[in-house]
Amino acid sequence: MKHIIKPAEGKLGILLPGLGAVATTLIAGVESVKKGLSEPVGSLTQMGTIRLGKRTENRKPKIKDFVPLAGLNDIVWGGWDVYSDNVYEAATKAAVLERHHIEAVKEELEKIVPMKAAFDRSYAKNLDGTHVKTGTRYELAQQLMEDITNFKEQNGLDRVVIVWCASTEVYNEPIDIHNSLEAFEEALKNDDKRIAPSMLYAYAALKLGVPFANGAPNLTVDIPAMVELAKQTQTPIAGKDFKTGQTLMKTILAPGLAIRALGVKGWFSTNILGNRDGLVLDDPENFKTKEVSKESVLTDILNAQDSPELYGDLFHKIRINYYPPHGDNKESWDNIDIFGWLGYKMQIKINFLCRDSILAAPIVLDLALFSDFAKRAGMSGIQEWLSFYLKSPQTAPGLPAENDVFKQLIKLENTLRYLMGEDLITHLGLDYYEELVESNY
Amino acid sequence: MKHIIKPAEGKLGILLPGLGAVATTLIAGVESVKKGLSEPVGSLTQMGTIRLGKRTENRKPKIKDFVPLAGLNDIVWGGWDVYSDNVYEAATKAAVLERHHIEAVKEELEKIVPMKAAFDRSYAKNLDGTHVKTGTRYELAQQLMEDITNFKEQNGLDRVVIVWCASTEVYNEPIDIHNSLEAFEEALKNDDKRIAPSMLYAYAALKLGVPFANGAPNLTVDIPAMVELAKQTQTPIAGKDFKTGQTLMKTILAPGLAIRALGVKGWFSTNILGNRDGLVLDDPENFKTKEVSKESVLTDILNAQDSPELYGDLFHKIRINYYPPHGDNKESWDNIDIFGWLGYKMQIKINFLCRDSILAAPIVLDLALFSDFAKRAGMSGIQEWLSFYLKSPQTAPGLPAENDVFKQLIKLENTLRYLMGEDLITHLGLDYYEELVESNY
Amino acid sequence: MKHIIKPAEGKLGILLPGLGAVATTLIAGVESVKKGLSEPVGSLTQMGTIRLGKRTENRKPKIKDFVPLAGLNDIVWGGWDVYSDNVYEAATKAAVLERHHIEAVKEELEKIVPMKAAFDRSYAKNLDGTHVKTGTRYELAQQLMEDITNFKEQNGLDRVVIVWCASTEVYNEPIDIHNSLEAFEEALKNDDKRIAPSMLYAYAALKLGVPFANGAPNLTVDIPAMVELAKQTQTPIAGKDFKTGQTLMKTILAPGLAIRALGVKGWFSTNILGNRDGLVLDDPENFKTKEVSKESVLTDILNAQDSPELYGDLFHKIRINYYPPHGDNKESWDNIDIFGWLGYKMQIKINFLCRDSILAAPIVLDLALFSDFAKRAGMSGIQEWLSFYLKSPQTAPGLPAENDVFKQLIKLENTLRYLMGEDLITHLGLDYYEELVESNY
Amino acid sequence: MKHIIKPAEGKLGILLPGLGAVATTLIAGVESVKKGLSEPVGSLTQMGTIRLGKRTENRKPKIKDFVPLAGLNDIVWGGWDVYSDNVYEAATKAAVLERHHIEAVKEELEKIVPMKAAFDRSYAKNLDGTHVKTGTRYELAQQLMEDITNFKEQNGLDRVVIVWCASTEVYNEPIDIHNSLEAFEEALKNDDKRIAPSMLYAYAALKLGVPFANGAPNLTVDIPAMVELAKQTQTPIAGKDFKTGQTLMKTILAPGLAIRALGVKGWFSTNILGNRDGLVLDDPENFKTKEVSKESVLTDILNAQDSPELYGDLFHKIRINYYPPHGDNKESWDNIDIFGWLGYKMQIKINFLCRDSILAAPIVLDLALFSDFAKRAGMSGIQEWLSFYLKSPQTAPGLPAENDVFKQLIKLENTLRYLMGEDLITHLGLDYYEELVESNY
Q1: Does ipTM top 0.90?
Q2: What InterPro entries does the database record attribute to this sequence (chains A, B, C, D) (predicted)?
């Protein structure tokens, strides 16, 4: 039975808080793809296929041909930033893309000018931008809602989604003011500085029924108040922290060790990067937010409670180093101390010469398109099936997160199959062999 | 509904053609575990857990507590080899395990003496053993059947299984004599040298209804004649080539790239190892058998037909180098040239300091115990659900193999759940959120 | 006392057999440097400094300011190739340099058109160029001499030097026809195919008193006949095989292990590269020439005769793999098994993401300028002080080569100091401390 | 002319402040070597050879056969520690050596019991030992002198040397009380806590004319007061910081890049180790001492002043991470961003799986034997020729240190040749070729 999904008619606005390396790489890339100059590699919605039915049916449509998503030509870009550079200027400074890629879409990029950001420097000390709004927390939230409404009207949009692409904020744990919508709104009125700027964007979005996905490890929508608001306004939310680079590798490799019942004694991960993200994370308070997000991944996949003999002694250490010579070309090195049969030791070393924004950009696109799809499918609140893209997935209260990227994908794919009325896939496949003697039952 | 499975009563004989590094590491290990001196790390049947029911139920028994498998204390070992060393001597020469691990089970190992092998040096030129049977192909097969029958009787065994642990044979493609049981038995009578020695073991086993799993990349049971025989005698078979080391890493990492729609342009894999396996593979004809097995893995996971933009240009090269300084401590180095958003290039380098036999030993154990379990569950012919352990999985004719190790695990786990009457797991999990408005349907 | 050296007046012709990746990278680079667009990094003659006198004097001129070398503006380029592309076209195809670097000197490069090569495909099977001379070996040598003479006259040159930049020829050992100038010239007249094409260039050069340096591992000038001719015509020669990439790293690292008396048990070196050099070396016969050159390096530095306890068991294996995805971006991976105190094992892994031609180009420049300098300084025959640049240094008969790159540099520097009348440096430096009591003597 | 050197008669006491991993590995090793069970690999004095005369003479004696050093059988061990374990117990806890290596010399090791240490926890917060002396700084120095004198008498020793093997102290810069012997002794009397514990050992040693070498990066003997005292009592001193592991690799590799005029833009070095040294360095103040010592190395070898185009922008970052799973098996990973011809970028990655104490132990032995030799040769004060073993070499005031390990070796070897009346080696070697025409002069 197929679920009822509203068609993707009209234009879709994608608003991005933070028009830095990731956002500009995304926007320039989509514009380049629209002109037929490049391929949107890394985007599941654009390039990925999905198996339907039995293996022997050989049905593997592209996801975008299977599910009614907004088309790239229907996207309109906007955003906020603490620097006033337009997207052409910002992309040039970010220096992720080569000159010729940026120049080819210069006209399109120049038109996109950031709105003033709702910013509080105590949440990101290493940033010095001045293109910022003024006012109390409450006033800032109101201004953001106006920004969204104006953006929608001025561009004649049918729908809008927001994906947080700005820097990591300093570490915070959920406290009383986050625990209910009422408490949150009360704090907002009191201009409570414990409300992080990112929460203002999330609040403004959800109030207007605009889906919100969070690409940084800040709490943002991962507090009861926001979940409550999301349900109230029938709005999908997803978070948190884009899963790229080293953590992506971890959620690929760690399940591979776990399924083979190989033990892990130590996992040392270091990163060197020289972009603005690296600069922000050079501050210990901001790093802590990231660290917590990165660490939880292993704790879940290599489960010490279920398998104390294998993972009870795991020592996990993560380092991020600001290293200007590499720019956006983040590089990670992992040393993994594993043990096998009778406890014999082995080692795995992984050196990933990656590109941070190149890996993140297609994730933003997918989160935007899937969030919009979820809204049209009548889904609201936490979208756990999007945890495939996220380092630290938000789940229902008390529900353990699934960090294994392969299980996350099955969840995503089976969700799509379910909504589109296709059979779920279990990989059982015993019927190909007919070897089960009936009388055995 | 639970399937009917005969209980694992009595003793289980495990017969191993090839009592070299892998087999002796397995035997010494199990004996060590039985004495409480070590843990059978890497063995899913012994250490692995399986999730049952919903995530919130938190049911995760050990597999051996969920499925009726033979216990370690019920195992009796035997085997064949071209060298006459008993298992204590062979383990000492193999030098995989440290001195103290071998000495602690010396008494048990010394008792296990190889039977003479059915060997033909034209299938493994770099081996010079002389502990071999004589006779025509037909006579050799008869002798092997006698060996199996005697072993069972003399040890008072209830059941026997065989796992091929000997060297890789030279490359061969299936020809007419492999195409039907009749043609095979005709060739056998004619002493046709195109019947590989490994096929004689498989034939002898299947004739007697003894499950046979193949740990090398030789054809062996992967020919129509053997499948026919297996069905005839209601015997499970599984093949081929233990998935360890570099290929294991490949089937972990490659799916991780594919699910993210990242492109792969080149994959260079080199190995250095100094054990007998390395010596045999130093011969180009034997290496070819291995190469074909190793190469197919990527072709399947990174599917050029489905995603020509991502995998159409993939250049894949594999090298194995005999390097005595490392002994059994196989080491692999992979360079993977990937590309992401707009085609931007990135690189992954993996250096795996592994131990070949340490990774293989628990696989032999699991294949033996699961094959015996399959027999008792009334399953026969190809056991695709055991492809989790194999580099080059044997499937039903025309059915594409599944090489993604994560899908292979789901297949294995859902097979166990199915046989034991538990719900299959789909990772859908939308019910935790209740967010689907009923009227939407 | 200062040696008498003729000044570097007038123009210097540099003729390069083989206008491929290395040569075109050199030429485009020098032209770019002349326009002030780039720096000649990697060239000792252009960027290097030399310490003179005592440490406390702090005298460290650039080498080009210390020794009278030809200036870059006085260089005129020429060469031969089996393909007829001009240097602009060849540089474009080689794809070593980025587009903008080549375009900036397009005009200069287009003017340089190769003369037809003296070629014999049985010496390089994987090359298929047809821009070749015809005739007997003798006639080819005569034609090459005419080429050189014409090039000198037409360009109004004062001096000419030749550096072999073409591919590696198939493996050959010195035989009777190489043993004396008389035997060589007799063989030449007989059109003896055992005379390699590269020897024809060397012969033509030396006959005309033109210095010749050999950048490939072929014998070429490393035979008694050529040494005899060089002495006769007062011409410097140098060879063989440019020391770049992995071997450079080896001659840096191996001395470092040796001076600390650390043992080495195994050294595995693999390379992946996708340029024409990689294609030629994919042929086993050509690879052998390279292998011999690469292997001798370690044998000399890690001396098993002097230190059998440390290097007596060294297993050294080198592999070169043709891997198109990398193009000219050669990459090497080394695993080195070392041992220290009481024999405890340690490992070093080196992954060098290098660029073959980028490392080779400045070596060609230095060899050309130093060879010309040597000629003007009245030096002739083997120039061992240039072994700093070479994998397999040519020495006087019976004299063991020095492969340690640091000792090679001291030899080079002390040669320059000696010729320029400066004190040789011994690094003794006890005089800074005056601690030696006179009466002790 | 040969220098007069007193013979190595009688017994030599080697006293080691800090009987931890390094010292116990040294002692157990020498005892093992004395019994013929192991080789003293890594020790230049025991295993190294030295070339004498011309290359063609082929004279390469072992250093210990060339220079009159104390023999291993004449060594008597002693030391101080903040823990009271005897050397057998301490070696067992350090777990550097395998069980059987320690057991084989158990009897010898048990006899060596530490004297109480002169300790001040504010100099090493992460250490909690209580086997310590009490008293003012002055009294502690007196007690140490008594310890040395008693040790010498009770063991009937001819000579004693001291090598500092204890932990790194917190960072300190030289101040007024270090500037002259007078000021230092005044401070001593005033119980000035700015005198580091290590200085008390050095003072006690030098007062008694006992040579002192410093294996940690603390100031210790690297202050004018100690140099003054050393000259006064005719005593050799050497410092500071044993050059092992990553820094050894740096002083091997960096000169290799510099001599080829290759640029370096970034050098990132990370270390993971789990021994007591790692624990002490986990404190930022102690790490700083180490960091300063490690950083200076590159600044000197890759000289930005001499070659601003190549090294002016070098970004150098060093990290040390406490990582218990590795124990004493320190592992380093370096990423080096270099550039060549026209500025093209290349990368070198080095992964060194080393063993900290295995590399350090032979250095302690060599420093001890060479310091004793220097004393007998009438040398006093700073022994710069021993900088070969040290990360941060102490030199005469105003004299720039030489950090290139290859130049350091030449200095060491030429010092030995000089003292033994052999020709210094310059590697000129032009005489092998006779190619210089006399009339050219």
Answers
A1: yes
A2: Myo-inos-1-P_Synthase (IPR002587), Myo-inos-1-P_Synthase_GAPDH (IPR013021), NAD(P)-bd_dom_sf (IPR036291)
